[in-house]
Design goal:
It contains nine helices and no strands. By secondary structure, it is mainly α. The protein has a domain of about 120 residues: Rna Polymerase Sigma Factor, Chain: A, CATH 1.10.1740.10.
């Protein structure tokens, strides 16, 4: 995201905080491209079981609706806060989709269970989308992220979900780069414990 785009979004956020409700739609429209990239990144990196089974635009549309509702109750102070909220809402949408898929797979695995005519067909041997244990691991990961200490959660979300480099995170949070590196290591260490079935964090 360019500096000019960030400034434009901050202006809209400031208008929203001043009570201009029209700024909400303008903010979401202006941020739509970034929201789509963010949703695609989270889907690809963190929810591989859902890839190819859910349309990215439908995920973004559902996130949009949840953001509209959230922005009626809370007012992010900065662009970073807004995208952290967006990442949280995208994660909620994907966790809900994961839960639905797990329930469907459970029904199919039950004695006499049959796949619905609307299912996408059997998975290839290399496809891990039908692995309930893997889905459970991913669900646990994202629930654990929400429970991290505030600074560790901020650094993890900004780097892993939003794609900010650690130097930019340090600038935005007003922290020394070494502190950001320490917080990243601490967060990923906590998340990795007991989640060995998930690929290493990038």
């Amino acid at each position: 995201m360019t500096a000019d785009a960030t400034v434009e979004l901050q202006v809209l956020i400031d208008r929203l905080r001043q009570g201009d409700r029209r700024a909400c739609r303008e903010l979401l429209e202006r941020a739509h491209g970034r929201l789509r990239k963010l949703a695609g990144r989270i889907l690809s990196l963190s929810f591989p079981a859902l890839r190819g089974r859910h349309d990215l635009d439908s995920i973004v549309d559902e996130t949009w609706l949840r953001l509209v509702q959230a922005l009626e109750k809370c007012e992010p102070a900065t662009v970073t806060d807004f995208f952290r909220l967006a990442a949280h809402k995208i994660r909620q949408v994907l966790l809900d989709l994961t839960g639905r898929q797990r329930r469907r797979l459970g029904r199919e695995a039950a004695p006499g269970g049959e796949a619905s005519s609307t299912d996408n067909g059997p998975a290839e041997p290399s496809d891990q989308s039908h692995d309930p244990a893997r889905l459970a691991l991913w669900t646990e990961l994202h629930n654990t992220v929400a429970a991290l200490p505030e600074q560790e959660r901020s650094v993890f979300e900004m780097h892993y979900y939003l794609g900010f480099p650690q130097t930019e995170i340090a600038r935005l949070l007003g922290l020394h780069p070494r502190k950001v590196s320490y917080l990243w290591v601490a967060a990923t260490d906590k998340l990795a414990r007991g989640l060995s079935g998930i690929e290493a964090f990038g």
